[in-house]
Every structure is written in structure tokens, then in C-alpha cells.
Design a protein that fits this description.
By secondary structure, this protein is of the alpha+beta class. It has five helices and 14 strands. Strands 1, 2, 3, 4, 5, 6, 7, 9, 12, 13 and 14 form an eleven-stranded mixed sheet that branches. A three-stranded antiparallel sheet has the order 8-10-11, with no helix packed on it. A hairpin with a 2-residue loop joins β1 and β2. It starts with 16 loop residues before the first helix and ends in a 5-residue tail after the last strand.
Length: 282
């Protein structure tokens, strides 16, 4: 019986050269037929911002006052990011001056019937030769649009500047005599007590001369507006739009009123005034 001889198997070494030659030809071919997508790049400079912020830091949109004063024929409405202030109700009054007279005849336009003459200061002579001197907005105390309300009075000094009481409010009330100012006027009867007006740094000590010059006058709605805007500017001046206000008016609002409100806003520190009309663009 023949003996089976066991042969040791040796694996041949792989020759990779043909494959490498294939890829060296295939890769340039694929690159030559490839299509590349072009991309446009826009450089944007983003604002720098700290990665860590205090939890009480308000978002940017909360750093806006968004102050608006709406002017209508019945008064003014102040609105801001915090909501609406109570409406400042007002009644229009006009001062006419007859030829040759030094004083004014104050008239309620709504009380003058068509064809009715306005009388001069003597109450007898028709004001045929008259000039309109002032258009006033007298503050009115009322609870609703339907309430006719009562025109308000205030205490002013010799320069017709309204006084501020110890509660930092305008000395005001309804009526036509000093009895409505019993508490406020008591402050003006105390020599040495400090009182002030709407003007900044206007504090002064009560003295006999100041007492004798104090008088009751109609409270101007513009003074009420000035008081509110002054306090708002003092509180929110650091906001991004802390010196900006939008004045929104009806078509039937006399332009003199808009100018008066603009002057009040600027004196309060709102130097950026933007004018707008209700219903514009509708």
C-alpha cells in the first residue's frame, strides 16, 4: 500500500498593484465629472453677550418703555409697557380778547349757540373785534365718558405755577373757592414749610409774600400730564426709549393741542417726539 505524503501549503502573496492602478485611474475620472454646489456666505456681526447672565436680568424687549399719549377731544390717555394710566378728562375753554381790553373773556365753545355773540369783559358789548388768545384744556373730575363731570381748580403762585402738596400731588379739587383746598392751603399757611411747583428744584419756604400771592385757578390738563410724564421720565430715563414718546391724535383734534402736549413732553425730558394719527393706514 502506497504511503500518502503530506504536503505543506504556502499562501501566495497578494499583488495589490493592479487594484492601485485601477484607483489611480478611476479617482481623476470621478473628479472630472463631479458637480460641486456653490455656497454664498453672509458675514453677520452678532452682538457680544455673556454666556452667563443673572437670573433677574430682563430680556431686551422688556427694556422698552413704549410710551404713548393719545389726544382726543375729551382728554388725554397715557399708556406704557405697564398698561394704561387713568384717563385725564378735559374740557376745552377759549380765551378771547376784545379790542382795547387787557383781560380775556373765557368761553366754553360748546355753550355758544350758532349765531350767538361772545361778549366782552363788560358783559354788554358784543365781541365783534376779538382775537383768540388761548385754547385751554381744563381738567375735569369725572368717572366715565357719560358723566358730565366738574371742572377742577388748583392753587397757583404769582407766576401761575401749580403747587405740589406734601403727598407730591398737585394741589387740586373741584369747586370754585378755597374751601376745597382746606388741607392743601393749610400747608401754605405754615411759615417755614417747604412747598414746590412742577418745576425741578422749585422748593421754597412758605413766607407771608408767598401766602398772599397764592390763588385758585382752573387746573390745566396739561399740568396733570406734565406731572405724570415728569415722574415717568425720572423713573424710566435709563431705558432704551426713555426719552421717546408717541403722540397719537384724532383728526378732529385742534393742532394747537398737539403742540401744547408736545411742549409738555419735551419739558418733562422726552425729547424724541413722534406724531401719529388714529386710524392711519387702515
Amino acid at each position: 500500500m502506497a504511503r500518502k505524503v503530506k504536503v505543506k501549503r504556502v499562501d501566495p502573496e497578494l499583488d495589490l498593484l493592479p487594484i492601485m492602478n485601477l484607483f489611480s485611474i478611476l479617482i481623476p475620472f470621478l473628479l472630472s465629472v463631479a458637480v460641486f454646489q456653490k455656497m454664498a456666505v453672509i458675514d453677520i456681526n452678532m452682538p457680544l453677550q455673556s454666556m452667563a447672565q443673572p437670573e433677574d436680568t430682563p430680556p431686551p424687549e422688556d427694556d422698552m418703555l413704549n410710551l404713548t399719549v393719545t389726544i382726543t377731544s375729551t382728554g388725554m390717555q397715557i399708556a406704557s409697557k405697564n398698561g394704561f394710566f387713568p384717563k385725564i378728562y378735559a374740557k376745552e375753554m377759549r380765551d378771547y380778547q376784545c379790542e382795547g381790553e387787557e383781560g380775556f373773556t373765557r368761553v366754553d365753545p360748546s355753550s355758544i349757540a350758532e349765531g350767538q355773540s361772545i361778549m366782552c369783559l363788560d358783559g354788554v358789548t358784543p365781541a365783534t373785534n376779538k382775537e383768540l388768545q388761548n385754547i385751554l384744556m381744563v381738567a375735569v373730575n369725572k368717572t366715565s365718558e357719560e358723566d358730565p363731570g366738574t371742572m377742577m381748580k388748583t392753587v397757583v403762585n404769582a407766576n401761575d405755577s401749580v403747587y405740589i402738596n406734601s403727598n407730591m400731588s398737585i394741589m387740586a379739587g373741584t369747586g370754585y373757592d378755597y374751601s376745597i383746598f382746606v388741607k392743601d392751603m393749610a400747608e401754605l399757611q405754615q411759615p417755614g414749610k417747604i412747598v414746590s411747583t412742577l418745576a425741578l428744584n422749585s422748593g421754597r419756604k412758605v413766607n407771608p409774600k408767598l401766602i398772599s400771592e397764592a390763588k385758585a385757578e382752573s387746573l390745566s390738563a396739561y399740568d396733570v400730564l406734565a406731572r405724570i410724564l415728569g415722574e415717568m421720565h425720572e423713573k424710566f430715563a435709563e431705558m432704551e426709549d426713555g426719552d421717546k414718546v408717541i403722540l397719537l391724535s384724532d383728526d378732529d383734534v385742534v393742532y394747537d393741542k398737539v403742540i401744547a402736549v408736545m411742549d409738555v413732553a419735551r419739558e418733562a425730558g422726552f425729547f424724541q417726539v413722534q406724531l401719529a394719527k388714529m386710524g392711519a393706514g387702515e
